[in-house]
Specification:
Number of strands: 10
Strand content: under 5%
Distance between the termini: 18 Å
Helix content: 40-55%
CATH topology: Glycosyltransferase
Structural class: mainly alpha
Radius of gyration: 20 Å
Number of domains: 1
Largest sheet: 3 strands, antiparallel
Bound molecules: alpha-D-glucopyranose
Order of helices and strands: HEHHEHEHHHHHHHEHHEEEEHHHHEHEH
Strand order of the largest sheet: 1-2-3
CATH class: Mainly Alpha
Length: 437
């Protein structure tokens, strides 16, 4: 298939997922608007439909809370009942400043919107609509970052925490297993609930029911503390300074500093956060043993012991020294030499690697987009090209799936596209990788 055909197909995917001013990640499985999905989708749109790009971000901000949070799901329709947990289960009325129209979830997701806005500007430097939009949305974006630093960094370290795996964007990564095991499910007294995802997708490719119970437990914990209360940090078994969340926050800080300077906004607050965050990221999240950055479990006061994809996003955020970056890229060179498509989401040499199950092994499109740009920034052009080519060839072969098989022999002999098909961020990542290499 040639480039034009692939772009045409990708645009059709986005078009089909387009609702009233925003896209859903995928029909049926995810029938609402998701935070970081929409960030990546706006980058795809920015290449050919400025109005759609703006509207995608605006729709997310329609659900911003008074405390600054952009929730991870915006339930634009209250009548859609095929998703769990839906808006009624979240009961966000426990927080006085929560958006009620539209209804939302009570947690957030990786803060990609700052760098998405920068992409919109870079692709359309003189577009009046984009310029006006950037000026209008800018203070709201800074307020979103303020949410992270005010509510998620109790010791003012410069590193923010998450208290739910869904916030990480990497729901069932093996790195969370240990922390989730601290939860006493037997005495948790969970409310009754029915999953919807396994009715639509293959259960073997989705999180297990134990994990789902743990997700519901943490949701209830957040709810007890109005979703932003101090009690979360005091009580939660799951309290993680995540490698990806913090790298993305740093990358978006940088974008907002650049944009702020251009439009004469005061960037002092952002610059203070930024200096502290980069310093602490390097000091606390680097692992000599793994040769990559890894998350820190605040509750158990320890770094994660496994290689996992989140650390690589530090390249995208310009965090490592060239020496560290080189060590990180060696892992990828090794995978390339050993017949893998890259980048698998978890360490392929680890016993918990599961090449089909969601965040426990498969390749994710939007991760490739960030890692491609990160590697390029550090002049690892061979590895960068391989990351880009891996995704493009998998999509060409299997369609616009949610995630993909990484082992070449399986790709060649079985169906290697997993989860939902016709996925929005797969389409937007492909568009952007083809049009802005
Ligand atoms: C899954 C992914 C998450 C994504 C969402 C919608 O929950 O783990 O990262 O935002 O689906 O696509």
């Amino acid at each position: 298939m040639n480039k034009d055909q692939l772009i045409k197909q990708a645009k059709a995917v986005l078009n089909n997922n387009l609702q009233n001013g925003f896209t859903i990640p995928r029909a049926k499985l995810y029938p609402f608007q998701w935070n970081w999905d929409s960030g990546f989708v706006s980058i795809g749109f920015a290449n050919y439909d400025v109005d759609a790009a703006i509207s995608e971000i605006n729709s997310l901000f329609s659900g911003q809370w008074e405390n600054g949070m952009i929730p991870h799901i915006i339930f634009h329709s209250e009548n859609e009942t095929t998703y769990f947990p839906n808006w009624d289960f979240w009961e966000t009325t426990v927080n006085k400043g929560a958006s009620q129209a539209p209804k939302t979830s009570g947690i957030s997701q990786p803060p990609v919107l700052g760098f998405a806005l920068e992409q919109l500007l870079q692709k359309n430097p003189n577009n009046e609509k984009i310029l006006a939009f950037a000026k209008m949305i800018y203070p709201k974006m800074v307020h979103y970052h303020r949410f992270w630093y005010n509510y998620r960094d109790p010791n003012q370290e410069g590193l923010v925490f998450i208290y739910h795996p869904w916030e990480s964007g990497r729901d069932n990564s093996p790195i969370w297993d240990d922390a989730l095991d601290l939860i006493d499910l037997e005495n948790a007294n969970l409310p009754k609930y029915t999953r919807q995802d396994t009715k639509i997708s293959d259960a073997k490719e989705r999180p297990t029911s134990k994990q789902y119970d743990e997700y519901v437990y943490l949701l209830e914990l957040g709810k007890r503390h109005q979703y932003d209360g101090k009690g979360i940090a005091e009580e939660s078994e799951f309290l993680i300074q995540d490698s990806l969340i913090n790298a993305v926050l740093i990358r978006s800080n940088e974008a907002l500093i650049n944009i702020g300077k251009r439009f004469n906004f005061d960037t002092k607050e952002l610059e203070e956060w930024q200096t502290q965050s980069i310093k602490q990221y390097n000091a606390k999240l680097w692992s000599e043993k793994l040769n990559t950055y890894t998350g820190y479990d605040l509750r158990q006061a320890k770094q994660f012991p496994q290689w996992e994809i989140g650390g690589l996003t530090a390249l995208f955020a310009n965090i490592p020294t060239p020496e560290r970056a080189e060590k990180m890229s060696n892992y990828l060179a090794d995978l390339m030499a050993n017949n893998y498509f890259i980048v698998p989401s978890f360490d392929v040499h680890h016993e918990l690697y599961d090449s089909k199950r969601y965040w426990r092994g498969p390749i994710w499109p939007q991760m490739n987009w960030m890692i491609y740009h990160g590697l390029k920034q550090y002049n690892f052009q061979t590895e960068a090209d391989f990351v880009r080519e891996s995704l493009l060839s998998l999509v060409e072969r299997f369609g616009f799936h949610e995630y993909f098989e990484a082992q070449r022999h399986l790709v060649n002999t079985t169906h290697g596209g997993y989860g939902g098909d016709n996925f929005s961020w797969t389409a937007s990542s492909v568009i952007d990788l083809l049009l802005c290499p």
